[in-house]
Write a structure and sequence with these properties.
416 residues, alpha+beta, Elongation Factor Tu (Ef-tu), domain 3, 4-stranded antiparallel β-sheet, 6 helices, 31% helix, elongated, disordered N terminus, disordered C terminus, transmembrane
Length: 416
Protein backbone atom coordinates (compact mmCIF):
# COMPACT_ATOMS: atom_id res chain seq x y z
CA UNK A 1 0.00 0.00 0.00
CA UNK A 2 1.27 3.39 -0.96
CA UNK A 3 1.73 6.33 1.35
CA UNK A 4 -1.26 8.14 -0.14
CA UNK A 5 -3.50 5.31 0.76
CA UNK A 6 -2.26 5.43 4.35
CA UNK A 7 -2.94 9.15 4.69
CA UNK A 8 -6.41 8.91 3.15
CA UNK A 9 -7.79 5.52 4.04
CA UNK A 10 -10.98 4.49 2.41
CA UNK A 11 -13.82 3.76 4.74
CA UNK A 12 -15.08 0.31 4.38
CA UNK A 13 -18.18 -1.32 5.70
CA UNK A 14 -16.09 -3.09 8.22
CA UNK A 15 -14.98 0.24 9.70
CA UNK A 16 -18.47 2.10 10.26
CA UNK A 17 -19.19 4.24 13.46
CA UNK A 18 -20.86 2.36 16.30
CA UNK A 19 -24.69 2.72 16.57
CA UNK A 20 -26.12 4.80 19.54
CA UNK A 21 -27.09 2.85 22.55
CA UNK A 22 -30.65 2.72 24.07
CA UNK A 23 -29.65 5.12 26.84
CA UNK A 24 -28.40 7.65 24.31
CA UNK A 25 -31.62 7.32 22.32
CA UNK A 26 -33.76 7.78 25.49
CA UNK A 27 -31.73 10.87 26.45
CA UNK A 28 -32.25 12.34 23.02
CA UNK A 29 -36.02 11.62 23.22
CA UNK A 30 -36.30 13.37 26.66
CA UNK A 31 -34.40 16.35 25.35
CA UNK A 32 -36.77 16.63 22.42
CA UNK A 33 -39.81 16.36 24.69
CA UNK A 34 -38.51 19.15 26.93
CA UNK A 35 -37.97 21.38 23.91
CA UNK A 36 -41.51 20.71 22.72
CA UNK A 37 -42.94 21.44 26.21
CA UNK A 38 -41.11 24.76 26.47
CA UNK A 39 -42.29 25.71 23.00
CA UNK A 40 -45.88 24.90 23.94
CA UNK A 41 -45.62 26.91 27.20
CA UNK A 42 -44.20 29.89 25.35
CA UNK A 43 -46.99 29.65 22.80
CA UNK A 44 -49.61 29.55 25.58
CA UNK A 45 -48.11 32.62 27.23
CA UNK A 46 -47.98 34.42 23.91
CA UNK A 47 -51.61 33.61 23.12
CA UNK A 48 -52.71 34.64 26.63
CA UNK A 49 -50.81 37.92 26.43
CA UNK A 50 -52.32 38.59 23.01
CA UNK A 51 -55.85 37.91 24.29
CA UNK A 52 -55.36 40.15 27.34
CA UNK A 53 -54.06 43.05 25.28
CA UNK A 54 -56.88 42.60 22.81
CA UNK A 55 -59.43 42.61 25.67
CA UNK A 56 -57.98 45.85 27.05
CA UNK A 57 -58.09 47.42 23.61
CA UNK A 58 -61.69 46.30 23.13
CA UNK A 59 -62.68 47.61 26.56
CA UNK A 60 -61.04 50.97 25.89
CA UNK A 61 -62.85 51.32 22.58
CA UNK A 62 -66.18 50.00 23.82
CA UNK A 63 -68.56 52.76 25.02
CA UNK A 64 -69.00 52.65 28.81
CA UNK A 65 -72.42 52.08 30.22
CA UNK A 66 -71.65 54.93 32.59
CA UNK A 67 -70.87 57.20 29.69
CA UNK A 68 -72.79 58.43 26.76
CA UNK A 69 -73.40 54.93 25.46
CA UNK A 70 -75.03 53.63 28.71
CA UNK A 71 -78.34 54.42 30.37
CA UNK A 72 -78.75 55.19 34.08
CA UNK A 73 -81.97 55.41 36.03
CA UNK A 74 -82.05 58.48 38.29
CA UNK A 75 -84.35 60.69 40.28
CA UNK A 76 -84.32 64.44 39.72
CA UNK A 77 -85.09 67.71 41.47
CA UNK A 78 -86.01 71.08 40.03
CA UNK A 79 -84.15 74.22 41.07
CA UNK A 80 -86.50 76.66 42.78
CA UNK A 81 -86.43 80.39 43.34
CA UNK A 82 -87.05 81.32 46.95
CA UNK A 83 -85.78 82.61 50.28
CA UNK A 84 -83.32 80.95 52.64
CA UNK A 85 -82.09 81.94 56.07
CA UNK A 86 -78.51 82.46 57.20
CA UNK A 87 -78.16 80.65 60.53
CA UNK A 88 -75.51 80.37 63.22
CA UNK A 89 -75.68 77.10 65.15
CA UNK A 90 -74.38 76.69 68.70
CA UNK A 91 -74.88 74.75 71.91
CA UNK A 92 -76.66 76.73 74.60
CA UNK A 93 -77.63 76.49 78.26
CA UNK A 94 -81.05 77.48 79.55
CA UNK A 95 -80.59 80.15 82.21
CA UNK A 96 -83.36 81.66 84.37
CA UNK A 97 -83.81 85.42 84.36
CA UNK A 98 -84.03 85.36 88.19
CA UNK A 99 -83.02 82.71 90.70
CA UNK A 100 -83.38 83.32 94.45
CA UNK A 101 -81.85 81.15 97.16
CA UNK A 102 -83.78 82.33 100.22
CA UNK A 103 -82.05 82.32 103.60
CA UNK A 104 -83.21 83.48 107.02
CA UNK A 105 -82.48 87.04 108.16
CA UNK A 106 -83.53 86.33 111.76
CA UNK A 107 -83.00 83.67 114.38
CA UNK A 108 -85.90 81.47 115.30
CA UNK A 109 -87.91 78.31 114.89
CA UNK A 110 -89.68 77.48 111.62
CA UNK A 111 -93.38 77.38 112.42
CA UNK A 112 -94.85 76.72 108.97
CA UNK A 113 -93.85 75.78 105.41
CA UNK A 114 -96.54 76.97 103.02
CA UNK A 115 -95.21 75.83 99.64
CA UNK A 116 -95.28 72.42 98.00
CA UNK A 117 -92.32 71.00 96.13
CA UNK A 118 -92.30 72.06 92.49
CA UNK A 119 -95.16 74.51 92.99
CA UNK A 120 -95.56 77.62 90.84
CA UNK A 121 -95.74 80.48 93.32
CA UNK A 122 -96.84 84.03 92.60
CA UNK A 123 -94.94 87.08 93.74
CA UNK A 124 -95.77 87.77 97.40
CA UNK A 125 -97.11 84.26 98.08
CA UNK A 126 -96.21 82.97 101.59
CA UNK A 127 -93.39 80.44 101.70
CA UNK A 128 -92.12 80.04 105.27
CA UNK A 129 -93.05 81.42 108.72
CA UNK A 130 -90.57 81.81 111.57
CA UNK A 131 -91.61 82.33 115.20
CA UNK A 132 -91.93 86.12 115.54
CA UNK A 133 -93.15 86.51 119.13
CA UNK A 134 -89.91 87.88 120.52
CA UNK A 135 -89.61 90.35 117.66
CA UNK A 136 -93.19 91.48 118.11
CA UNK A 137 -92.53 92.11 121.78
CA UNK A 138 -89.48 94.20 120.94
CA UNK A 139 -91.51 96.07 118.37
CA UNK A 140 -94.19 96.81 120.97
CA UNK A 141 -91.61 98.24 123.33
CA UNK A 142 -90.19 100.46 120.61
CA UNK A 143 -93.66 101.69 119.72
CA UNK A 144 -94.30 102.57 123.40
CA UNK A 145 -91.08 104.55 123.64
CA UNK A 146 -91.96 106.35 120.42
CA UNK A 147 -95.38 107.34 121.73
CA UNK A 148 -93.90 108.66 125.00
CA UNK A 149 -91.29 110.72 123.21
CA UNK A 150 -93.84 112.04 120.75
CA UNK A 151 -95.93 113.35 123.64
CA UNK A 152 -92.86 114.89 125.26
CA UNK A 153 -92.17 116.63 121.97
CA UNK A 154 -95.74 117.86 121.80
CA UNK A 155 -95.48 119.29 125.32
CA UNK A 156 -92.22 120.99 124.45
CA UNK A 157 -93.81 122.57 121.41
CA UNK A 158 -96.70 123.90 123.52
CA UNK A 159 -94.25 125.43 125.99
CA UNK A 160 -92.43 127.02 123.08
CA UNK A 161 -95.63 128.70 121.94
CA UNK A 162 -96.24 130.06 125.48
CA UNK A 163 -92.64 131.31 125.71
CA UNK A 164 -92.98 133.15 122.42
CA UNK A 165 -96.13 134.88 123.64
CA UNK A 166 -94.41 135.82 126.90
CA UNK A 167 -91.37 137.07 125.01
CA UNK A 168 -93.62 139.23 122.86
CA UNK A 169 -94.96 140.77 126.10
CA UNK A 170 -91.41 141.09 127.48
CA UNK A 171 -92.41 138.75 130.34
CA UNK A 172 -89.41 136.39 130.05
CA UNK A 173 -85.82 136.81 129.05
CA UNK A 174 -84.65 135.89 125.56
CA UNK A 175 -82.47 133.09 126.94
CA UNK A 176 -85.50 131.20 128.22
CA UNK A 177 -87.08 131.27 124.76
CA UNK A 178 -83.87 130.13 123.11
CA UNK A 179 -83.51 127.23 125.54
CA UNK A 180 -87.03 126.07 124.85
CA UNK A 181 -86.41 126.10 121.10
CA UNK A 182 -83.39 123.82 121.55
CA UNK A 183 -85.38 121.51 123.80
CA UNK A 184 -87.93 121.09 121.01
CA UNK A 185 -85.19 120.22 118.55
CA UNK A 186 -83.75 117.66 120.97
CA UNK A 187 -87.15 116.03 121.41
CA UNK A 188 -87.60 115.90 117.65
CA UNK A 189 -84.29 114.02 117.34
CA UNK A 190 -85.38 111.60 120.06
CA UNK A 191 -88.61 110.94 118.21
CA UNK A 192 -86.72 110.23 114.98
CA UNK A 193 -84.48 107.81 116.81
CA UNK A 194 -87.55 106.07 118.23
CA UNK A 195 -89.10 105.89 114.76
CA UNK A 196 -85.96 104.21 113.44
CA UNK A 197 -86.09 101.65 116.24
CA UNK A 198 -89.74 100.93 115.45
CA UNK A 199 -88.98 100.51 111.77
CA UNK A 200 -86.06 98.18 112.49
CA UNK A 201 -88.18 96.01 114.78
CA UNK A 202 -90.94 95.99 112.20
CA UNK A 203 -88.48 94.73 109.57
CA UNK A 204 -87.42 91.96 111.95
CA UNK A 205 -91.04 90.95 112.32
CA UNK A 206 -91.51 91.02 108.56
CA UNK A 207 -88.46 88.79 108.10
CA UNK A 208 -90.31 86.14 110.07
CA UNK A 209 -92.87 85.87 107.26
CA UNK A 210 -91.00 84.92 104.08
CA UNK A 211 -92.78 85.43 100.74
CA UNK A 212 -91.87 84.75 97.10
CA UNK A 213 -89.79 87.62 95.66
CA UNK A 214 -91.14 86.98 92.14
CA UNK A 215 -93.32 84.56 90.25
CA UNK A 216 -91.54 81.30 89.64
CA UNK A 217 -91.19 77.66 90.47
CA UNK A 218 -90.08 76.61 93.92
CA UNK A 219 -87.73 73.66 94.29
CA UNK A 220 -87.61 70.78 96.74
CA UNK A 221 -88.41 71.47 100.40
CA UNK A 222 -85.23 72.16 102.35
CA UNK A 223 -86.60 72.81 105.89
CA UNK A 224 -89.48 71.51 107.99
CA UNK A 225 -91.53 73.01 110.80
CA UNK A 226 -89.57 72.85 114.03
CA UNK A 227 -86.18 73.45 112.46
CA UNK A 228 -84.12 76.21 114.04
CA UNK A 229 -82.62 78.70 111.62
CA UNK A 230 -79.96 81.34 112.18
CA UNK A 231 -79.42 84.61 110.42
CA UNK A 232 -75.71 83.85 110.17
CA UNK A 233 -76.05 80.15 109.41
CA UNK A 234 -76.48 80.46 105.64
CA UNK A 235 -79.04 77.65 105.54
CA UNK A 236 -81.11 77.85 102.36
CA UNK A 237 -84.82 77.72 103.14
CA UNK A 238 -86.17 77.63 99.57
CA UNK A 239 -85.05 78.19 95.98
CA UNK A 240 -87.34 80.03 93.59
CA UNK A 241 -86.57 80.10 89.86
CA UNK A 242 -88.33 82.22 87.29
CA UNK A 243 -89.20 80.10 84.25
CA UNK A 244 -91.54 82.44 82.34
CA UNK A 245 -89.85 84.12 80.61
CA UNK A 246 -86.53 82.31 80.52
CA UNK A 247 -83.26 82.84 78.68
CA UNK A 248 -80.59 80.74 77.00
CA UNK A 249 -76.89 81.57 76.81
CA UNK A 250 -74.86 80.40 73.81
CA UNK A 251 -71.66 81.45 72.06
CA UNK A 252 -70.97 83.16 68.74
CA UNK A 253 -67.59 82.96 67.01
CA UNK A 254 -65.81 86.29 66.79
CA UNK A 255 -65.66 85.87 63.00
CA UNK A 256 -69.48 86.09 62.93
CA UNK A 257 -69.76 89.27 64.97
CA UNK A 258 -69.75 91.29 61.75
CA UNK A 259 -73.02 89.58 60.82
CA UNK A 260 -74.75 90.00 64.18
CA UNK A 261 -73.68 93.37 65.58
CA UNK A 262 -74.94 95.54 62.69
CA UNK A 263 -78.37 93.93 63.00
CA UNK A 264 -78.46 94.60 66.73
CA UNK A 265 -77.46 98.22 66.15
CA UNK A 266 -80.40 98.45 63.77
CA UNK A 267 -82.55 97.11 66.64
CA UNK A 268 -83.55 94.18 64.48
CA UNK A 269 -85.33 91.34 66.26
CA UNK A 270 -83.22 88.30 65.41
CA UNK A 271 -85.09 85.01 65.93
CA UNK A 272 -83.43 82.22 67.92
CA UNK A 273 -84.74 78.67 67.67
CA UNK A 274 -84.15 76.09 70.38
CA UNK A 275 -83.81 72.43 69.37
CA UNK A 276 -83.44 69.28 71.42
CA UNK A 277 -80.18 67.34 71.70
CA UNK A 278 -80.78 65.59 68.37
CA UNK A 279 -81.24 68.96 66.59
CA UNK A 280 -84.31 67.46 64.91
CA UNK A 281 -87.20 68.79 67.02
CA UNK A 282 -87.73 72.52 67.49
CA UNK A 283 -88.99 73.07 71.02
CA UNK A 284 -89.09 76.87 71.42
CA UNK A 285 -88.77 80.15 69.54
CA UNK A 286 -87.30 83.31 71.02
CA UNK A 287 -85.23 86.34 70.07
CA UNK A 288 -81.68 87.55 70.63
CA UNK A 289 -81.56 89.80 73.67
CA UNK A 290 -77.95 91.00 73.81
CA UNK A 291 -74.27 90.12 73.45
CA UNK A 292 -71.63 90.05 76.14
CA UNK A 293 -69.23 92.99 76.41
CA UNK A 294 -66.03 91.04 75.72
CA UNK A 295 -64.63 88.10 73.74
CA UNK A 296 -63.28 85.05 75.49
CA UNK A 297 -59.67 84.94 74.30
CA UNK A 298 -59.30 81.22 75.09
CA UNK A 299 -62.11 80.19 72.73
CA UNK A 300 -62.45 83.17 70.40
CA UNK A 301 -66.17 83.40 71.10
CA UNK A 302 -68.57 85.87 72.68
CA UNK A 303 -71.58 84.96 74.79
CA UNK A 304 -75.08 85.81 73.63
CA UNK A 305 -78.37 85.71 75.52
CA UNK A 306 -81.71 84.87 73.93
CA UNK A 307 -85.12 85.39 75.54
CA UNK A 308 -87.95 82.83 75.34
CA UNK A 309 -91.47 83.29 76.72
CA UNK A 310 -91.54 79.56 77.62
CA UNK A 311 -95.31 79.54 78.07
CA UNK A 312 -95.48 75.78 77.70
CA UNK A 313 -92.58 75.26 80.13
CA UNK A 314 -90.54 73.05 77.79
CA UNK A 315 -87.28 74.86 78.59
CA UNK A 316 -85.89 73.79 81.96
CA UNK A 317 -83.24 75.73 83.89
CA UNK A 318 -79.66 74.56 83.19
CA UNK A 319 -80.84 72.38 80.29
CA UNK A 320 -78.50 71.95 77.32
CA UNK A 321 -80.08 72.80 73.97
CA UNK A 322 -79.03 73.41 70.37
CA UNK A 323 -79.66 76.95 69.22
CA UNK A 324 -80.02 78.41 65.73
CA UNK A 325 -79.71 82.17 65.36
CA UNK A 326 -81.27 83.60 62.19
CA UNK A 327 -78.85 86.36 61.19
CA UNK A 328 -80.23 87.25 57.77
CA UNK A 329 -82.57 86.04 55.03
CA UNK A 330 -81.53 85.81 51.38
CA UNK A 331 -84.38 86.55 49.00
CA UNK A 332 -85.02 85.31 45.47
CA UNK A 333 -82.06 82.92 45.25
CA UNK A 334 -81.74 79.57 43.48
CA UNK A 335 -82.38 76.61 45.78
CA UNK A 336 -81.75 72.90 45.20
CA UNK A 337 -81.55 69.85 47.51
CA UNK A 338 -78.18 69.61 49.24
CA UNK A 339 -77.89 65.99 48.08
CA UNK A 340 -77.77 67.15 44.44
CA UNK A 341 -74.49 69.05 44.95
CA UNK A 342 -71.42 66.91 44.26
CA UNK A 343 -67.81 67.71 45.11
CA UNK A 344 -64.55 67.02 43.33
CA UNK A 345 -61.80 68.30 45.53
CA UNK A 346 -62.34 72.03 45.89
CA UNK A 347 -64.86 72.19 43.05
CA UNK A 348 -68.61 71.69 43.32
CA UNK A 349 -70.87 70.63 40.47
CA UNK A 350 -74.30 69.28 39.61
CA UNK A 351 -75.67 67.18 36.76
CA UNK A 352 -78.10 69.19 34.64
CA UNK A 353 -80.62 66.94 32.86
CA UNK A 354 -81.55 68.06 29.34
CA UNK A 355 -83.32 65.76 26.87
CA UNK A 356 -82.55 62.75 29.09
CA UNK A 357 -78.82 63.50 28.98
CA UNK A 358 -76.74 64.50 32.00
CA UNK A 359 -74.41 67.48 31.67
CA UNK A 360 -71.87 68.52 34.30
CA UNK A 361 -72.33 72.10 35.47
CA UNK A 362 -70.03 73.82 37.95
CA UNK A 363 -71.83 75.64 40.77
CA UNK A 364 -70.94 77.76 43.76
CA UNK A 365 -72.76 76.57 46.90
CA UNK A 366 -73.78 79.16 49.45
CA UNK A 367 -76.06 79.01 52.47
CA UNK A 368 -77.40 75.61 53.55
CA UNK A 369 -80.56 75.23 55.61
CA UNK A 370 -81.61 71.73 56.57
CA UNK A 371 -81.52 69.82 53.23
CA UNK A 372 -81.68 72.88 50.99
CA UNK A 373 -78.67 74.70 49.53
CA UNK A 374 -78.45 78.04 47.78
CA UNK A 375 -76.27 77.79 44.64
CA UNK A 376 -74.97 80.04 41.91
CA UNK A 377 -74.33 78.77 38.38
CA UNK A 378 -77.75 77.38 37.47
CA UNK A 379 -81.14 78.96 36.99
CA UNK A 380 -84.51 78.32 38.63
CA UNK A 381 -86.35 75.66 36.68
CA UNK A 382 -83.23 73.64 35.78
CA UNK A 383 -83.60 69.93 36.43
CA UNK A 384 -80.71 68.35 38.33
CA UNK A 385 -79.90 64.72 39.12
CA UNK A 386 -80.53 63.68 42.71
CA UNK A 387 -79.37 60.05 42.77
CA UNK A 388 -77.14 57.40 41.11
CA UNK A 389 -74.14 59.73 41.07
CA UNK A 390 -71.68 56.81 41.06
CA UNK A 391 -72.95 55.88 37.57
CA UNK A 392 -73.19 59.35 36.07
CA UNK A 393 -70.70 61.27 34.03
CA UNK A 394 -70.83 64.03 31.49
CA UNK A 395 -73.15 63.34 28.50
CA UNK A 396 -74.50 60.13 30.06
CA UNK A 397 -77.96 59.05 28.94
CA UNK A 398 -80.46 58.77 31.79
CA UNK A 399 -83.92 57.52 32.51
CA UNK A 400 -85.86 59.66 34.98
CA UNK A 401 -87.71 57.65 37.61
CA UNK A 402 -90.58 59.03 39.64
CA UNK A 403 -89.91 56.57 42.45
CA UNK A 404 -86.95 56.76 44.84
CA UNK A 405 -83.99 54.65 43.76
CA UNK A 406 -83.27 51.88 46.32
CA UNK A 407 -80.03 52.30 48.23
CA UNK A 408 -78.66 48.99 46.95
CA UNK A 409 -79.22 50.13 43.38
CA UNK A 410 -77.69 53.55 43.77
CA UNK A 411 -74.58 52.26 45.46
CA UNK A 412 -73.88 48.88 43.85
CA UNK A 413 -75.49 47.92 40.56
CA UNK A 414 -75.82 49.76 37.29
CA UNK A 415 -79.08 50.78 35.74
CA UNK A 416 -80.17 48.89 32.65
Amino acid sequence: MSSDSKEHPTTSPDHQLPAPTSEQREHQNHKGVRIIVWVVILLIFAVAFFLIMRQHATTAKKPSRRGAGGTTTITTATAQKGDIGVYLDAIGTVTPVHTASITSQVNGIVTAVHYQEGQIVRQGAPLIDIDSRTYRATLLQAQGILERDQNILAQAKMDLVRYRDAWNRNAIPKQTLDDQEKIVLQDEGTVKNDQGAVQFDQVQVDYCHITAPFTGRVGLRLVDPGNVVQSSGGTTLAVVTQIQPITAIFTIAEDNLGQVQPRLHQQAKLPVYAFDRTSLNKIATGSLLTLDNLIDTTTGTVKARALFDNKNGVLFPNEFINTRLLVNTLHDVTLIPSSAVQHNGQESFVYIIQNNVAHVRSVKPGVTDDNTTQVEGINPGDVVADSSFEKLQDNAKVIISKKPIPASTTTGSEAP
